[in-house]
Design brief:
By secondary structure, the protein is α/β, with parallel strands linked by helices. Helices cover 63% and strands 11% of the residues. It has 22 helices and 10 strands. The chain has helices at 4-9, 14-45, 49-100, 106-120, 123-132, 135-147, 149-196, 198-204, 207-215, 218-259, 265-279, 285-305, 362-369, 392-398, 413-417, 424-433, 437-440, 458-469, 487-498, 513-518, 536-539, 543-548; strands at residues 324-333, 336-346, 351-355, 377-382, 385-386, 399-403, 475-479, 505-509, 521-526, 529-534. The strands form 2 sheets. A 6-stranded mixed β-sheet has the order 6-7-8-3-9-10. A 4-stranded antiparallel β-sheet has the order 2-1-4-5, covered by helices on one side. Helix 2 (14-45) runs antiparallel to helix 3, helix 6 (135-147) packs antiparallel against helix 7 (149-196) and helix 7 packs antiparallel against helix 10. The radius of gyration is 35 Å and the shape is elongated.
Protein backbone atom coordinates (compact mmCIF):
# COMPACT_ATOMS: atom_id res chain seq x y z
CA UNK A 1 0.00 0.00 0.00
CA UNK A 2 1.10 3.56 -0.69
CA UNK A 3 -0.12 6.70 1.07
CA UNK A 4 -0.16 10.43 0.47
CA UNK A 5 2.39 10.88 3.25
CA UNK A 6 4.75 8.29 1.77
CA UNK A 7 4.70 9.97 -1.62
CA UNK A 8 5.17 13.40 -0.05
CA UNK A 9 8.23 12.21 1.89
CA UNK A 10 9.95 11.05 -1.29
CA UNK A 11 10.95 14.68 -1.86
CA UNK A 12 13.91 13.91 0.46
CA UNK A 13 16.36 16.84 0.50
CA UNK A 14 14.18 19.00 -1.74
CA UNK A 15 11.33 19.37 0.76
CA UNK A 16 13.48 21.04 3.47
CA UNK A 17 14.82 23.40 0.81
CA UNK A 18 11.27 24.18 -0.36
CA UNK A 19 10.19 24.68 3.24
CA UNK A 20 13.21 26.88 4.02
CA UNK A 21 12.54 29.09 0.99
CA UNK A 22 8.87 29.24 1.96
CA UNK A 23 9.88 30.48 5.41
CA UNK A 24 12.18 33.07 3.85
CA UNK A 25 9.33 34.18 1.61
CA UNK A 26 6.97 34.37 4.57
CA UNK A 27 9.54 36.33 6.56
CA UNK A 28 10.01 38.79 3.70
CA UNK A 29 6.26 39.09 3.28
CA UNK A 30 5.77 39.84 6.97
CA UNK A 31 8.76 42.16 7.37
CA UNK A 32 8.21 44.26 4.26
CA UNK A 33 5.00 46.04 5.42
CA UNK A 34 6.67 47.02 8.71
CA UNK A 35 9.78 48.30 6.89
CA UNK A 36 7.64 50.26 4.41
CA UNK A 37 5.55 51.61 7.29
CA UNK A 38 8.72 52.88 8.96
CA UNK A 39 9.70 54.42 5.63
CA UNK A 40 6.39 56.26 5.49
CA UNK A 41 6.82 57.57 9.01
CA UNK A 42 10.43 58.63 8.18
CA UNK A 43 9.30 60.40 5.03
CA UNK A 44 6.61 62.22 7.01
CA UNK A 45 9.26 63.15 9.59
CA UNK A 46 11.59 64.28 6.80
CA UNK A 47 14.67 62.26 7.81
CA UNK A 48 16.08 58.75 8.23
CA UNK A 49 14.08 57.17 5.42
CA UNK A 50 17.09 56.13 3.30
CA UNK A 51 18.06 53.20 5.51
CA UNK A 52 14.47 51.92 5.52
CA UNK A 53 14.23 52.09 1.72
CA UNK A 54 17.55 50.22 1.39
CA UNK A 55 16.27 47.57 3.80
CA UNK A 56 13.05 47.27 1.76
CA UNK A 57 15.05 46.82 -1.48
CA UNK A 58 17.18 44.12 0.17
CA UNK A 59 14.08 42.27 1.35
CA UNK A 60 12.57 42.41 -2.13
CA UNK A 61 15.78 41.00 -3.66
CA UNK A 62 15.84 38.22 -1.05
CA UNK A 63 12.22 37.39 -1.80
CA UNK A 64 12.91 37.17 -5.56
CA UNK A 65 15.91 34.88 -4.98
CA UNK A 66 13.84 32.64 -2.69
CA UNK A 67 11.10 32.40 -5.35
CA UNK A 68 13.59 31.35 -8.04
CA UNK A 69 15.16 28.69 -5.80
CA UNK A 70 11.70 27.49 -4.78
CA UNK A 71 10.61 27.08 -8.40
CA UNK A 72 13.72 25.02 -9.22
CA UNK A 73 13.45 22.89 -6.08
CA UNK A 74 9.75 22.26 -6.66
CA UNK A 75 10.31 21.11 -10.26
CA UNK A 76 13.23 18.87 -9.23
CA UNK A 77 11.23 17.38 -6.35
CA UNK A 78 8.26 16.55 -8.60
CA UNK A 79 10.55 15.06 -11.27
CA UNK A 80 12.37 12.78 -8.82
CA UNK A 81 9.17 11.69 -7.07
CA UNK A 82 7.49 10.99 -10.41
CA UNK A 83 10.42 8.83 -11.51
CA UNK A 84 10.38 6.90 -8.22
CA UNK A 85 6.63 6.34 -8.36
CA UNK A 86 6.69 5.28 -12.01
CA UNK A 87 9.46 2.77 -11.35
CA UNK A 88 7.45 1.33 -8.49
CA UNK A 89 4.23 1.17 -10.51
CA UNK A 90 5.91 -0.45 -13.51
CA UNK A 91 7.60 -2.99 -11.24
CA UNK A 92 4.26 -3.99 -9.70
CA UNK A 93 2.57 -4.19 -13.10
CA UNK A 94 5.31 -6.37 -14.58
CA UNK A 95 5.76 -8.58 -11.52
CA UNK A 96 2.00 -8.94 -11.14
CA UNK A 97 1.90 -10.80 -14.44
CA UNK A 98 -1.22 -11.35 -16.53
CA UNK A 99 -3.24 -12.53 -13.55
CA UNK A 100 -2.37 -9.57 -11.33
CA UNK A 101 -3.29 -6.99 -13.98
CA UNK A 102 -6.41 -8.80 -15.18
CA UNK A 103 -8.72 -6.30 -13.44
CA UNK A 104 -7.12 -3.29 -15.19
CA UNK A 105 -7.52 -2.11 -18.75
CA UNK A 106 -4.25 -1.47 -20.59
CA UNK A 107 -4.97 2.17 -21.36
CA UNK A 108 -6.07 2.80 -17.78
CA UNK A 109 -2.80 1.37 -16.46
CA UNK A 110 -0.83 3.58 -18.84
CA UNK A 111 -2.73 6.62 -17.58
CA UNK A 112 -2.03 5.71 -13.96
CA UNK A 113 1.70 5.25 -14.63
CA UNK A 114 2.04 8.39 -16.74
CA UNK A 115 -0.35 11.26 -15.99
CA UNK A 116 -1.63 10.20 -12.57
CA UNK A 117 1.91 9.58 -11.27
CA UNK A 118 2.79 13.17 -12.12
CA UNK A 119 -0.29 14.41 -10.25
CA UNK A 120 0.60 12.28 -7.23
CA UNK A 121 4.19 13.58 -7.24
CA UNK A 122 2.87 17.08 -6.46
CA UNK A 123 2.00 15.85 -2.95
CA UNK A 124 5.21 16.98 -1.24
CA UNK A 125 5.63 20.51 -2.69
CA UNK A 126 1.87 21.20 -2.47
CA UNK A 127 1.70 20.10 1.17
CA UNK A 128 4.74 22.19 2.12
CA UNK A 129 3.36 25.19 0.24
CA UNK A 130 -0.02 24.83 1.97
CA UNK A 131 1.60 24.63 5.42
CA UNK A 132 3.94 27.54 4.66
CA UNK A 133 0.97 29.62 3.51
CA UNK A 134 -0.32 29.59 7.09
CA UNK A 135 2.67 31.60 8.33
CA UNK A 136 1.83 34.98 6.71
CA UNK A 137 -1.73 35.30 8.09
CA UNK A 138 -0.69 34.01 11.53
CA UNK A 139 2.26 36.38 11.56
CA UNK A 140 0.01 39.19 10.33
CA UNK A 141 -2.38 38.56 13.21
CA UNK A 142 0.47 38.73 15.74
CA UNK A 143 1.98 41.90 14.23
CA UNK A 144 -1.42 43.58 14.01
CA UNK A 145 -1.96 42.77 17.68
CA UNK A 146 1.33 44.47 18.44
CA UNK A 147 0.21 47.54 16.50
CA UNK A 148 -3.29 47.60 17.96
CA UNK A 149 -5.50 44.78 19.40
CA UNK A 150 -8.61 46.13 17.66
CA UNK A 151 -6.89 45.79 14.28
CA UNK A 152 -6.11 42.16 15.10
CA UNK A 153 -9.74 41.50 16.07
CA UNK A 154 -11.06 42.91 12.77
CA UNK A 155 -8.47 40.92 10.85
CA UNK A 156 -9.23 37.67 12.71
CA UNK A 157 -12.97 37.82 11.97
CA UNK A 158 -12.36 38.22 8.23
CA UNK A 159 -9.74 35.46 8.08
CA UNK A 160 -12.18 33.01 9.65
CA UNK A 161 -14.52 33.60 6.70
CA UNK A 162 -11.66 32.98 4.23
CA UNK A 163 -10.72 29.73 6.01
CA UNK A 164 -14.34 28.55 5.77
CA UNK A 165 -14.31 29.23 2.02
CA UNK A 166 -11.08 27.22 1.60
CA UNK A 167 -12.35 24.30 3.71
CA UNK A 168 -15.52 24.09 1.61
CA UNK A 169 -13.49 24.18 -1.61
CA UNK A 170 -11.11 21.42 -0.47
CA UNK A 171 -14.01 19.19 0.56
CA UNK A 172 -15.83 19.59 -2.75
CA UNK A 173 -12.87 19.28 -5.12
CA UNK A 174 -11.38 16.03 -3.73
CA UNK A 175 -14.15 13.76 -5.05
CA UNK A 176 -14.37 15.56 -8.41
CA UNK A 177 -10.60 15.24 -9.02
CA UNK A 178 -10.71 11.46 -8.52
CA UNK A 179 -13.75 11.07 -10.78
CA UNK A 180 -12.04 13.16 -13.48
CA UNK A 181 -8.88 11.01 -13.42
CA UNK A 182 -10.91 7.79 -13.48
CA UNK A 183 -12.83 8.97 -16.55
CA UNK A 184 -9.56 9.87 -18.27
CA UNK A 185 -8.35 6.33 -17.57
CA UNK A 186 -11.51 4.81 -19.06
CA UNK A 187 -11.14 6.87 -22.25
CA UNK A 188 -7.49 5.79 -22.53
CA UNK A 189 -8.54 2.16 -22.04
CA UNK A 190 -11.08 2.37 -24.88
CA UNK A 191 -8.53 4.03 -27.16
CA UNK A 192 -5.91 1.38 -26.39
CA UNK A 193 -8.44 -1.36 -27.11
CA UNK A 194 -9.29 0.23 -30.46
CA UNK A 195 -5.65 0.66 -31.46
CA UNK A 196 -5.08 -3.04 -30.80
CA UNK A 197 -7.87 -3.95 -33.20
CA UNK A 198 -7.42 -1.05 -35.64
CA UNK A 199 -7.16 -3.34 -38.70
CA UNK A 200 -10.39 -5.11 -37.83
CA UNK A 201 -12.14 -1.78 -37.31
CA UNK A 202 -10.94 -0.46 -40.66
CA UNK A 203 -11.88 -3.67 -42.47
CA UNK A 204 -15.35 -3.75 -40.91
CA UNK A 205 -15.98 -0.10 -41.79
CA UNK A 206 -16.92 0.74 -38.21
CA UNK A 207 -14.52 3.65 -37.70
CA UNK A 208 -17.29 6.18 -37.03
CA UNK A 209 -19.01 3.89 -34.53
CA UNK A 210 -15.68 3.24 -32.79
CA UNK A 211 -15.00 6.97 -32.67
CA UNK A 212 -18.38 7.52 -31.01
CA UNK A 213 -17.67 4.68 -28.56
CA UNK A 214 -14.33 6.17 -27.47
CA UNK A 215 -15.53 9.75 -27.33
CA UNK A 216 -18.82 8.77 -25.71
CA UNK A 217 -17.23 9.46 -22.31
CA UNK A 218 -16.26 13.02 -23.25
CA UNK A 219 -19.61 14.45 -22.04
CA UNK A 220 -18.97 12.85 -18.64
CA UNK A 221 -15.42 14.22 -18.61
CA UNK A 222 -16.77 17.61 -19.65
CA UNK A 223 -19.38 17.46 -16.89
CA UNK A 224 -16.74 16.74 -14.25
CA UNK A 225 -14.51 19.47 -15.64
CA UNK A 226 -17.38 21.96 -15.51
CA UNK A 227 -18.14 20.94 -11.92
CA UNK A 228 -14.47 21.48 -11.04
CA UNK A 229 -14.43 24.93 -12.61
CA UNK A 230 -17.73 25.84 -10.95
CA UNK A 231 -16.36 24.88 -7.57
CA UNK A 232 -13.20 26.86 -8.28
CA UNK A 233 -15.18 29.83 -9.58
CA UNK A 234 -17.57 29.78 -6.61
CA UNK A 235 -14.71 29.61 -4.15
CA UNK A 236 -12.81 32.29 -6.04
CA UNK A 237 -15.86 34.58 -6.02
CA UNK A 238 -16.40 34.01 -2.32
CA UNK A 239 -12.72 34.74 -1.62
CA UNK A 240 -12.95 37.83 -3.84
CA UNK A 241 -15.83 39.10 -1.71
CA UNK A 242 -14.42 38.13 1.68
CA UNK A 243 -10.90 39.42 0.92
CA UNK A 244 -11.88 43.07 0.41
CA UNK A 245 -14.15 42.85 3.46
CA UNK A 246 -11.09 41.98 5.56
CA UNK A 247 -9.22 44.94 4.10
CA UNK A 248 -12.16 47.31 4.58
CA UNK A 249 -12.67 46.15 8.18
CA UNK A 250 -8.99 46.67 9.07
CA UNK A 251 -8.83 50.04 7.30
CA UNK A 252 -12.02 51.20 8.98
CA UNK A 253 -10.77 50.27 12.44
CA UNK A 254 -7.30 51.60 11.59
CA UNK A 255 -8.73 54.92 10.41
CA UNK A 256 -10.57 55.36 13.68
CA UNK A 257 -7.41 54.50 15.62
CA UNK A 258 -5.36 56.94 13.51
CA UNK A 259 -7.83 59.75 14.12
CA UNK A 260 -7.75 59.03 17.82
CA UNK A 261 -3.94 59.12 17.74
CA UNK A 262 -3.40 55.55 18.86
CA UNK A 263 -1.45 54.58 15.69
CA UNK A 264 0.69 56.42 13.16
CA UNK A 265 0.24 56.74 9.40
CA UNK A 266 3.00 54.17 8.94
CA UNK A 267 1.18 51.80 11.28
CA UNK A 268 -1.98 52.18 9.21
CA UNK A 269 -0.03 51.49 6.01
CA UNK A 270 1.51 48.35 7.54
CA UNK A 271 -1.91 47.24 8.83
CA UNK A 272 -3.39 47.58 5.35
CA UNK A 273 -0.61 45.40 3.94
CA UNK A 274 -1.18 42.74 6.59
CA UNK A 275 -4.90 42.82 5.83
CA UNK A 276 -4.03 42.12 2.16
CA UNK A 277 -2.02 39.08 3.31
CA UNK A 278 -5.05 37.71 5.13
CA UNK A 279 -7.24 38.32 2.12
CA UNK A 280 -4.62 36.54 -0.01
CA UNK A 281 -5.45 33.24 1.67
CA UNK A 282 -8.14 32.91 -0.97
CA UNK A 283 -5.37 32.34 -3.52
CA UNK A 284 -4.69 29.01 -1.81
CA UNK A 285 -7.49 27.45 -3.88
CA UNK A 286 -4.88 26.64 -6.50
CA UNK A 287 -2.63 24.89 -3.97
CA UNK A 288 -5.58 23.01 -2.47
CA UNK A 289 -6.58 21.95 -5.98
CA UNK A 290 -3.09 20.50 -6.47
CA UNK A 291 -3.39 18.62 -3.18
CA UNK A 292 -6.76 17.21 -4.26
CA UNK A 293 -5.33 16.05 -7.60
CA UNK A 294 -2.30 14.60 -5.79
CA UNK A 295 -4.57 12.66 -3.42
CA UNK A 296 -6.54 11.32 -6.37
CA UNK A 297 -3.31 10.32 -8.15
CA UNK A 298 -2.02 8.59 -5.00
CA UNK A 299 -5.33 6.73 -4.66
CA UNK A 300 -5.11 5.42 -8.23
CA UNK A 301 -1.45 4.53 -7.77
CA UNK A 302 -2.29 2.67 -4.55
CA UNK A 303 -4.70 0.44 -6.45
CA UNK A 304 -1.82 -0.61 -8.73
CA UNK A 305 0.60 -1.05 -5.81
CA UNK A 306 -1.99 -3.38 -4.25
CA UNK A 307 -1.38 -5.88 -7.08
CA UNK A 308 0.11 -8.98 -5.54
CA UNK A 309 3.34 -9.93 -7.37
CA UNK A 310 3.84 -13.54 -8.33
CA UNK A 311 5.85 -15.03 -5.46
CA UNK A 312 8.74 -17.31 -6.41
CA UNK A 313 10.64 -19.77 -4.31
CA UNK A 314 14.38 -20.25 -4.07
CA UNK A 315 14.83 -23.84 -5.25
CA UNK A 316 16.69 -24.95 -8.33
CA UNK A 317 15.35 -27.68 -10.55
CA UNK A 318 17.09 -31.05 -10.29
CA UNK A 319 18.39 -32.75 -13.40
CA UNK A 320 15.39 -34.30 -15.11
CA UNK A 321 13.58 -34.86 -18.40
CA UNK A 322 10.76 -32.35 -17.81
CA UNK A 323 8.30 -34.63 -16.04
CA UNK A 324 5.14 -32.50 -15.64
CA UNK A 325 2.39 -33.38 -13.14
CA UNK A 326 -0.94 -31.77 -12.28
CA UNK A 327 -2.25 -32.83 -8.88
CA UNK A 328 -5.90 -31.90 -8.25
CA UNK A 329 -5.58 -28.59 -10.10
CA UNK A 330 -8.65 -26.36 -10.19
CA UNK A 331 -8.99 -22.78 -11.39
CA UNK A 332 -11.94 -20.58 -10.48
CA UNK A 333 -12.26 -16.99 -11.74
CA UNK A 334 -15.23 -14.68 -11.44
CA UNK A 335 -17.38 -17.51 -10.10
CA UNK A 336 -16.64 -19.64 -13.18
CA UNK A 337 -14.83 -22.98 -12.97
CA UNK A 338 -12.16 -22.92 -15.68
CA UNK A 339 -10.39 -26.13 -14.62
CA UNK A 340 -11.95 -28.75 -12.38
CA UNK A 341 -9.75 -31.19 -10.44
CA UNK A 342 -7.27 -31.87 -13.23
CA UNK A 343 -4.86 -34.75 -12.56
CA UNK A 344 -2.17 -35.40 -15.17
CA UNK A 345 1.11 -37.26 -15.16
CA UNK A 346 2.99 -36.31 -18.34
CA UNK A 347 6.31 -38.06 -18.91
CA UNK A 348 9.34 -35.95 -19.70
CA UNK A 349 10.65 -35.48 -23.21
CA UNK A 350 7.36 -36.17 -25.01
CA UNK A 351 5.08 -34.06 -27.18
CA UNK A 352 1.67 -33.54 -25.59
CA UNK A 353 -1.16 -31.99 -27.58
CA UNK A 354 -3.95 -30.28 -25.62
CA UNK A 355 -7.24 -30.25 -27.53
CA UNK A 356 -10.85 -29.47 -26.81
CA UNK A 357 -13.73 -27.23 -27.87
CA UNK A 358 -13.68 -23.49 -27.31
CA UNK A 359 -13.89 -22.68 -23.60
CA UNK A 360 -12.65 -26.10 -22.53
CA UNK A 361 -9.77 -24.57 -20.52
CA UNK A 362 -6.85 -25.27 -22.86
CA UNK A 363 -5.19 -21.86 -22.53
CA UNK A 364 -5.74 -21.90 -18.77
CA UNK A 365 -4.01 -25.28 -18.55
CA UNK A 366 -1.10 -23.91 -20.59
CA UNK A 367 -0.84 -20.82 -18.38
CA UNK A 368 -0.82 -22.98 -15.26
CA UNK A 369 1.90 -25.23 -16.73
CA UNK A 370 4.08 -22.19 -17.53
CA UNK A 371 3.20 -20.59 -14.17
CA UNK A 372 1.77 -17.49 -15.77
CA UNK A 373 -1.00 -17.92 -13.22
CA UNK A 374 -1.48 -20.06 -10.12
CA UNK A 375 -4.27 -22.59 -9.58
CA UNK A 376 -7.04 -21.91 -7.11
CA UNK A 377 -6.44 -25.39 -5.71
CA UNK A 378 -3.95 -28.17 -6.34
CA UNK A 379 -0.34 -28.13 -7.42
CA UNK A 380 1.78 -28.33 -10.57
CA UNK A 381 5.26 -29.87 -10.39
CA UNK A 382 8.15 -30.06 -12.82
CA UNK A 383 10.51 -32.96 -12.22
CA UNK A 384 9.08 -33.39 -8.74
CA UNK A 385 9.47 -29.74 -7.64
CA UNK A 386 6.34 -27.58 -7.19
CA UNK A 387 6.50 -24.64 -9.59
CA UNK A 388 5.80 -22.19 -6.76
CA UNK A 389 8.96 -23.32 -4.98
CA UNK A 390 11.24 -22.78 -8.00
CA UNK A 391 13.25 -19.56 -8.22
CA UNK A 392 12.29 -17.07 -10.92
CA UNK A 393 15.58 -17.44 -12.78
CA UNK A 394 15.48 -21.24 -12.75
CA UNK A 395 11.82 -21.32 -13.83
CA UNK A 396 12.16 -18.94 -16.76
CA UNK A 397 15.33 -20.66 -17.89
CA UNK A 398 13.61 -24.05 -17.88
CA UNK A 399 10.19 -23.08 -19.27
CA UNK A 400 9.53 -21.26 -22.53
CA UNK A 401 6.17 -19.98 -23.79
CA UNK A 402 4.83 -19.01 -27.19
CA UNK A 403 1.36 -17.69 -27.91
CA UNK A 404 -1.16 -17.28 -30.69
CA UNK A 405 -0.64 -13.50 -30.79
CA UNK A 406 2.90 -12.92 -29.53
CA UNK A 407 3.81 -9.46 -28.29
CA UNK A 408 7.33 -8.90 -29.55
CA UNK A 409 9.54 -6.77 -27.32
CA UNK A 410 12.81 -5.08 -28.26
CA UNK A 411 14.28 -2.60 -30.67
CA UNK A 412 15.32 -5.10 -33.32
CA UNK A 413 14.24 -8.53 -34.51
CA UNK A 414 17.33 -9.99 -32.88
CA UNK A 415 16.35 -8.51 -29.51
CA UNK A 416 12.79 -9.82 -29.96
CA UNK A 417 14.17 -13.36 -30.32
CA UNK A 418 16.72 -13.02 -27.52
CA UNK A 419 15.51 -10.42 -24.98
CA UNK A 420 18.02 -11.74 -22.41
CA UNK A 421 20.99 -11.08 -24.68
CA UNK A 422 21.93 -14.70 -25.30
CA UNK A 423 24.76 -15.35 -27.74
CA UNK A 424 24.26 -14.59 -31.46
CA UNK A 425 24.92 -18.27 -32.21
CA UNK A 426 22.02 -19.38 -30.01
CA UNK A 427 19.82 -16.65 -31.50
CA UNK A 428 20.56 -17.90 -34.99
CA UNK A 429 20.00 -21.51 -33.92
CA UNK A 430 16.59 -20.65 -32.45
CA UNK A 431 15.60 -18.75 -35.61
CA UNK A 432 16.67 -21.63 -37.85
CA UNK A 433 14.86 -24.22 -35.72
CA UNK A 434 11.58 -22.32 -35.92
CA UNK A 435 12.11 -21.33 -39.58
CA UNK A 436 12.14 -17.64 -38.68
CA UNK A 437 15.54 -17.33 -40.33
CA UNK A 438 13.86 -17.99 -43.69
CA UNK A 439 12.25 -14.52 -43.76
CA UNK A 440 14.58 -12.61 -41.41
CA UNK A 441 17.56 -13.33 -43.66
CA UNK A 442 15.74 -11.66 -46.56
CA UNK A 443 15.34 -8.35 -44.71
CA UNK A 444 17.85 -5.62 -45.65
CA UNK A 445 19.29 -5.39 -42.12
CA UNK A 446 18.62 -8.99 -41.12
CA UNK A 447 18.47 -9.46 -37.37
CA UNK A 448 19.26 -5.76 -36.87
CA UNK A 449 16.05 -4.69 -38.62
CA UNK A 450 13.91 -2.35 -36.51
CA UNK A 451 11.09 -4.37 -35.02
CA UNK A 452 8.54 -1.61 -35.53
CA UNK A 453 9.34 -1.24 -39.22
CA UNK A 454 9.75 -4.89 -40.14
CA UNK A 455 6.96 -6.04 -42.49
CA UNK A 456 5.64 -9.26 -40.94
CA UNK A 457 2.60 -11.45 -41.37
CA UNK A 458 0.84 -13.11 -38.47
CA UNK A 459 2.65 -16.36 -39.20
CA UNK A 460 6.04 -14.64 -39.24
CA UNK A 461 5.31 -13.02 -35.90
CA UNK A 462 4.40 -16.45 -34.53
CA UNK A 463 7.70 -17.84 -35.76
CA UNK A 464 9.56 -15.09 -33.90
CA UNK A 465 7.51 -15.90 -30.80
CA UNK A 466 8.51 -19.56 -31.15
CA UNK A 467 12.14 -18.59 -31.61
CA UNK A 468 12.00 -16.50 -28.42
CA UNK A 469 10.71 -19.52 -26.46
CA UNK A 470 13.14 -21.95 -28.06
CA UNK A 471 15.98 -21.37 -25.57
CA UNK A 472 13.99 -23.03 -22.74
CA UNK A 473 15.92 -26.01 -21.41
CA UNK A 474 13.15 -28.30 -20.15
CA UNK A 475 9.57 -27.41 -21.08
CA UNK A 476 8.02 -25.67 -24.08
CA UNK A 477 4.44 -24.46 -23.68
CA UNK A 478 2.89 -23.47 -27.00
CA UNK A 479 -0.59 -21.98 -26.75
CA UNK A 480 -1.96 -22.24 -30.31
CA UNK A 481 1.38 -20.77 -31.34
CA UNK A 482 1.31 -22.20 -34.89
CA UNK A 483 -2.28 -21.31 -35.80
CA UNK A 484 -1.29 -18.59 -38.32
CA UNK A 485 1.36 -20.65 -40.11
CA UNK A 486 0.80 -22.07 -43.54
CA UNK A 487 0.43 -25.84 -43.71
CA UNK A 488 3.94 -26.48 -45.05
CA UNK A 489 5.69 -24.33 -42.43
CA UNK A 490 3.50 -25.71 -39.64
CA UNK A 491 4.44 -29.24 -40.70
CA UNK A 492 8.14 -28.34 -40.69
CA UNK A 493 7.96 -26.79 -37.23
CA UNK A 494 5.88 -29.68 -35.92
CA UNK A 495 8.53 -32.07 -37.17
CA UNK A 496 11.18 -29.97 -35.42
CA UNK A 497 9.18 -30.14 -32.21
CA UNK A 498 8.47 -33.86 -32.34
CA UNK A 499 12.09 -34.61 -33.22
CA UNK A 500 13.49 -32.16 -30.66
CA UNK A 501 17.10 -33.16 -30.12
CA UNK A 502 17.05 -31.42 -26.73
CA UNK A 503 14.41 -33.92 -25.57
CA UNK A 504 12.30 -31.29 -23.87
CA UNK A 505 8.68 -31.76 -22.90
CA UNK A 506 6.39 -29.98 -25.36
CA UNK A 507 2.88 -29.00 -24.31
CA UNK A 508 1.06 -27.80 -27.43
CA UNK A 509 -2.43 -26.31 -27.41
CA UNK A 510 -3.81 -26.89 -30.90
CA UNK A 511 -6.96 -26.98 -33.01
CA UNK A 512 -5.37 -28.99 -35.81
CA UNK A 513 -5.84 -32.73 -36.01
CA UNK A 514 -2.53 -33.10 -37.89
CA UNK A 515 -0.64 -31.55 -34.96
CA UNK A 516 -2.43 -33.81 -32.50
CA UNK A 517 -1.63 -36.83 -34.70
CA UNK A 518 2.10 -36.06 -34.57
CA UNK A 519 2.05 -35.78 -30.75
CA UNK A 520 2.95 -38.67 -28.45
CA UNK A 521 -0.06 -38.02 -26.21
CA UNK A 522 -3.26 -36.01 -26.42
CA UNK A 523 -4.94 -34.41 -23.42
CA UNK A 524 -8.61 -34.01 -24.31
CA UNK A 525 -10.29 -31.29 -22.27
CA UNK A 526 -14.01 -30.63 -22.06
CA UNK A 527 -15.64 -28.00 -19.79
CA UNK A 528 -12.51 -27.73 -17.66
CA UNK A 529 -12.18 -31.47 -17.06
CA UNK A 530 -9.86 -34.08 -18.55
CA UNK A 531 -12.00 -36.31 -20.69
CA UNK A 532 -9.20 -38.57 -21.87
CA UNK A 533 -5.41 -38.91 -22.14
CA UNK A 534 -4.29 -41.15 -24.98
CA UNK A 535 -2.60 -41.16 -28.40
CA UNK A 536 -4.51 -39.42 -31.16
CA UNK A 537 -5.05 -42.65 -33.09
CA UNK A 538 -6.82 -44.24 -30.13
CA UNK A 539 -9.09 -41.24 -29.57
CA UNK A 540 -9.96 -40.81 -33.25
CA UNK A 541 -12.50 -43.64 -33.05
CA UNK A 542 -14.63 -41.44 -30.76
CA UNK A 543 -17.11 -39.34 -32.73
CA UNK A 544 -17.09 -36.61 -30.06
CA UNK A 545 -13.31 -36.37 -30.32
CA UNK A 546 -13.45 -35.94 -34.10
CA UNK A 547 -16.01 -33.16 -33.66
CA UNK A 548 -13.40 -31.18 -31.68
CA UNK A 549 -11.60 -30.54 -34.97
CA UNK A 550 -14.78 -29.65 -36.85
Amino acid sequence: MITFGEVAKRGRGWLPLIGFNALIGSGVTLALPTILGRSVDSIVAGSGYTQWLIAAAGLIALGITASIVDAFAGAACVAETTAWLRHRLVRHVIHGGPEGTRDFETGDLVTRVSANATDAAQAGPAAVTAVAAIAPPVGSLVLLALIDPWLAAAFFGGVLLVIFVLWTFAKRTAHVSLAYQETQGRIAALLSESLTGIRTIAAAGTTEREERRILGLLPELHKQGVVTWRILARSGAQAAIVGPLVLVAVLAVGGLQLVSGRITAGDLFAASQYAVLGAGLGNLTGVLGEIARAKAGVHRAAEVIAIEPIAHGSLALPIGPGHLTFDGVSVVAGGNVLLDNVNLDLPGGVTVAVVGPSGAGKSVLAAIAARLRDPSAGQVSLDGVPLQAVSRRALRSAVGCAFERPQLVGRTIGEAIAPNQISPIRTLAAARATHAHDFVSRLPDGYFTSLRRAPMSGGERQRLGLARAWSASRLLVLDDATSSLDTATERQISRTLTEDRHHRTRLIVTHRSATAARADLVVWLDHGQVRAVAPHADLWHDTSYRQVFG
